[in-house]
TrEMBL record:
Lineage of the species this protein comes from: Eukaryota, Fungi, Dikarya, Basidiomycota, Agaricomycotina
SUPFAM superfamilies listed in its UniProt record: Second domain of Mu2 adaptin subunit (ap50) of ap2 adaptor (SSF49447), SNARE-like (SSF64356)
Subcellular location: Cytoplasm; Cytoplasmic vesicle, COPI-coated vesicle membrane; Golgi apparatus membrane
Tagged with keyword Magnesium: no
Official protein name in the record: Coatomer subunit delta
Membrane topology, record value: Peripheral membrane protein
Transmembrane segments: none
Species assigned in the record: Agaricus bisporus var. burnettii
Length: 535
């Protein structure tokens, strides 16, 4: 069968959308569609009509027609089956089959048409596969929308955090002034008073204020101020008016700074700007003319009593060729060294890429060896997915164990361990444990670094790198905090980026189709967490 075009037109023959799969001019397709309604016999139930050159296979679609224009030698049974798939795709993407709705979803419909028919020949796909392909193509757009919303929320939180710090500085200023006046009254000496501490206007805050652990046994001192000092009866400054407007959002007291060590003090911690590509601190890869990107996303929910509630790994391999001389190649994947996922690990190739089955040699090459991969255009050639609850597939195990004491405190011991996956190295791992309202922790032991996040009232435990080959493979954090509810420390949120592949996808070699000579290539393989929780 050869499908020349797939079109949706009005009952008068006016084209709404049309996709040509062979070289046809606009005038030619408009002429064919204009003559189509005149060929339909009245009072019949036929679904096809023919002319001397082409065959129309059609189906009514409310006030429109959806039709395939094929050559006369085409298999009409296959054409009808293809037409039904086109009609189901239109019904799935459009709420109603009217001209306005069709034009509104024209881009998605044309993309779906290309997935069903390629160069005039039907691809081996069904409605679910077409829907899955379209959803995966829009995944990056969804990520950008989430990033934009997060930036807006972070800007609002930044305003609140700055206001809180300004309020704490103002109260500390008042406390120091009162303390200085009292000491001068008791030991006035010759003058009977001592100078009031002088204050300077704090510099603009460029980083998010967070609560961090101190390394000395004395509370952190606020920055020394200088300037005009305190003025009784002075008018409110703009900062004070801002704080009054925020009202209850400011911190209630400064007891945090006055408490005994090692309780945290307010400090400014530079927050590294987050990279939009999600790589974090992963080392960059120098690109060759053949560059392969292997990216996986992990969604994992662990039960704090043990076991896996849900786990999903989605991965894709993208090929980018910079030199036209390298466009006709075959990519050989290395045999898997692990049994990750087993039969639950499913692969899906691009429609133009030859498929490989379980137990077969995993080769990525075009079905038509005379064709070439696109140049200077990233192409998703392979996708895979795993979904299950097998605990042996979990890359990083988290054990959070809160224990309530009789003195009104809870001791929390949390530990991590990188499981036996040697080809993976974790970077920028952050484990966030929520805290009871109004309570602040006393950390007794820890590996890595820890800090308090005032915006979410949680303790953030940061491990810069976790490797299977050194002592960073496992670590622990122990702290105590006031309270009696052991369930208040869940859910635990985990974020990291990693180098490698959970599914064990590795490129063994890249060779030219003609001659079989090996080609130089580069591989960038990494993992990101979409959602990692301990509930």
């Amino acid at each position: 069968m050869v499908v020349l075009a797939a079109s949706i037109c009005t009952k008068g023959g006016k084209p709404v959308i049309s996709r040509q799969f062979r070289d046809m001019t606009r005038t030619r397709i408009e002429s064919l569609l204009a003559s189509f309604p005149k060929l339909i016999p009245t009072n019949t139930q036929h679904t096809s009509v023919e002319t001397a050159q082409v065959r129309y296979v059609y189906q009514p679609l409310e006030d429109l027609y959806i039709l395939l224009i094929t050559n006369k030698a085409s298999n009409i049974l296959q054409d009808i089956d293809t037409l039904h798939l086109f009609a189901r795709v239109v019904s799935d993407l459009c709420r109603s089959a009217d001209e306005r709705e069709i034009l509104k979803n024209a881009f998605e419909l044309l993309g779906a048409f290309d997935e069903i028919v390629s160069l005039g020949y039907k691809e081996s796909v069904n409605l679910m596969q077409v829907r899955s392909i379209l959803e995966m193509e829009s995944h990056e757009e969804k990520i950008q929308d989430i990033i934009a919303r997060n930036k807006e929320a972070e800007a609002k939180e930044e305003l609140k955090r700055r206001a809180k710090q300004l309020e704490m500085q103002r109260r500390e200023q008042q406390r120091r002034a009162a303390s200085g006046s009292g000491s001068s009254y008791l030991g006035g000496g010759a003058t009977g008073y001592s100078s009031i501490p002088r204050f300077e206007t704090p510099e603009p805050i460029s980083t998010s204020p967070r609560v961090t652990n101190t390394t000395t046994s004395t509370p952190s001192r606020p920055p020394a101020f200088k300037g005009s000092g305190m003025k009784l009866g002075a008018k409110k400054t703009k900062q004070a008016e801002l704080l009054d407007a925020l009202g209850g959002d400011v911190l209630a007291s400064t007891e945090l700074e006055l408490s005994a060590p090692p309780t945290p003090a307010v400090a400014e911690v530079p927050v590294m700007p987050k990279s939009n590509d999600g790589r974090g601190s992963l080392p960059e890869v120098e690109k060759e003319d053949i560059h392969i990107v292997i990216k996986e996303q992990l969604s994992l929910s662990l039960l704090h009593d043990g076991g896996v509630q849900s786990m999903e790994v989605k991965g894709d391999m993208n090929l980018l060729i910079a030199d036209p001389a390298m466009s006709q190649i075959r990519i050989a994947l290395a045999p898997s060294t692990s049994n990750f996922g087993g039969k639950s690990l499913q692969f899906k190739q691009h429609p133009n890429v030859a498929k490989f089955g379980p137990g077969q040699e995993r080769i990525i090459a075009l079905k038509d060896t005379s064709r070439s991969f696109p140049v200077n255009q990233s192409l998703a050639v392979l996708r895979w997915r795993y979904s299950g609850t097998d605990e042996s597939n979990v890359p990083l195990s988290i054990n959070c164990w809160p224990t309530a004491s009789h003195d009104g405190t809870v001791e929390v011991s949390i530990e991590y361990e990188l499981e036996h996956i040697e080809n993976i190295t974790l970077y920028d791992t952050v484990i966030s444990i929520p805290l009871p309202d109004g309570s602040y922790p006393t950390v007794t032991s820890h590996s890595g670094e820890w800090s308090l996040d005032s915006s979410s009232h949680s303790i953030s435990w940061t491990i810069p790198m976790i490797s299977f080959h050194d002592e960073s493979q496992s670590g622990s954090l122990v702290f105590s905090v006031g309270g009696d509810d052991t369930g208040a420390f869940f859910p635990v949120l985990v974020n990291f980026t990693a180098k490698g592949s959970l599914a064990g996808i590795e490129v063994a070699s890249v060779t030219h189709v003609e001659g079989g000579d090996e080609a130089v290539f580069s591989v960038d393989s990494y993992i990101t967490t979409e959602e990692f929780l301990v509930v």
